[in-house]
Amino acid sequence: MSPSTFEDQSQSFLDWFRAWPGTTFHESIKIQDLRERGAGRGIVATADIPEDTVLFTIPRKAIISVESSELSQKIPEVFEDSTTALEDADNEADEEGGESSVTPDSWVSLILVMIYEYLQGDRSAWKPYLNVLPKEFNTLMFWSEGELAELQASAITSKIGRDEAENMFRAKILPVIQAHATVFYPEGAERLGEEQLVTLCHCMGSTIMAYAFDLENDEEKPESEDDDEWIEDREGKIMMGMVPMADILNADAEFNAHVNHGEDALTVTSLRPISAGQEILNYYGPLANGELLRRYGYVTDKHSRYDVVEISWDLVLSVLKEALNFDEAAWGKVVREHTAPCQAQVSLNARTNSSQIGQLDPEEIEDTFVLDRDMDEPDSTGQCHDELKLSKLPEDLEGQISAFLKAVRKVSPETVPDKQRRNQMVLLVMKRAFELRASQYPTSYVQDFNLLSHEKVTGRQKMAVAVRWGEKVLLKEAIDFAQAKLDEIDSNVEQPEQRAAKKQRTK
Ligand SMILES: C[S@@+](CC[C@H](N)C(=O)[O-])C[C@H]1O[C@@H](n2cnc3c(N)ncnc32)[C@H](O)[C@@H]1O
Known about the structure:
It is a single chain. By secondary structure, the protein is an alpha+beta fold. It has helices at residues 6-19, 71-74, 76-79, 104-120, 127-132, 145-149, 162-179, 181-184, 194-211, 289-296, 313-324, 328-339, 343-348, 351-356, 395-411, 419-439, 445-453, 459-492, 496-506, and strands spanning 24-25, 29-33, 41-45, 54-59, 213-214, 240-241, 250-251, 257-261, 265-270, 281-282, 308-312, 368-372. The strands form five sheets. It has a four-stranded antiparallel sheet, with no helix packed on it. It has a two-stranded antiparallel sheet with strand order 2-3. Strand 8 and strand 9 form a beta hairpin. Helix 11 packs across helix 16 (419-439). The structure holds S-adenosylmethionine (SAM). The site of S-adenosylmethionine has 17 residues, from strand 3, helix 9 and strand 7. One of its GO terms (cellular component) is nucleus.
């Protein structure tokens, strides 16, 4: 019988883990209930731990993957190369949120394996581990319309892809399960209906998104084709797996442990001394809070260093249009000058020359720009040292506005008389675009700050406010930064009276 309480499940999972040949679990760590702060289970130090200590070891055999699950032996044709039913021509499977380094096949394969193991119930070798995997998720895929609305103008709402994921499940997962029902369902087990299967696919897809690892080959070993069993021998298709215990670790943008991929086992080691009571933390990468929420269903203060705001070129164009105040004919001419690969470009026959005169191939025009702080990643001990501050504006945006103003100069030389004025206009346009972008969020920076600092919001709403507030902080920094640059230009520009005084002195 399955253990019923949270603690019993943790204990039975730990006992099961220890029973695998080759596992280790350091005596100074324990699995802890962290639900009070919304972090599920985690692993905490019970005594001081020195740097470079092996905290636990997971033999590769204990990992759930296409290699280890008996499913791939029962229906090998499904997991075989090229002719397989999983072959993905249109990359739809990636919509569940897969990394670009991980092919859709890896996702589909692991979802199938996880569904198979789940349906086996007590017969699965991983049952105690499956028991501690989540049944409910805070990832954006599971938020209601009302909850998503709390994210306001954050671009993360356009990246959830629930429908695309569902289409992929129906196209690639359900047919395999239905065609091999006798394999997937143990004898006498109740068959799931289509909607139940889709729900199960969502559950497994989201578990994989938040828990699975890319199974790297042994880091020390040179790559060789023969014994490279952990990397599929298809281009860039890294195998994914569910790694028991490594995925009980929570994570943050500053962390103290690292998962090493060895030949026969994965080991988790401390990157620096860890004091008794401290949580052992892994690292998911330099993710903005919006992205962390989408993939993992939580946010942290430390991840706000990687926050991003998307700025659309359409918004920037609207600022340019308002600022230039051209009539429609002149505006149309500028837009054509800016974008069309016109005669001048053809005769110049060189991209550098064409961009010098403000012309860009329509395909070169960026639709969206990303504003971020371009912060360094943590050092080798998992710590960050740089100051949380925006230190430059998006260069690609600056370049595209500048190219546009060169086109303006061609149509109306007096509007952009020289380089200095152009630089000033670029900054004015960026600043205005950032202000307009901030105004797309219905609440202000200050209102959100009050909601958070006075604990007026909880749960999903609190996480949504943290995401949108972080984006507003970034926009405010960008507005202030552009203004400081404008002030700098102003203080360097000689006023007519200064020029006259200088002339007088040199007489
Ligand atoms: C790999 S699992 C870690 C173990 C997980 N806490 C559990 O109970 O199974 C990743 C999930 O843990 C949670 N998590 C990880 N790091 C967290 C953190 N710093 N704060 C809150 N929740 C966190 C999120 O729900 C995330 O999707």
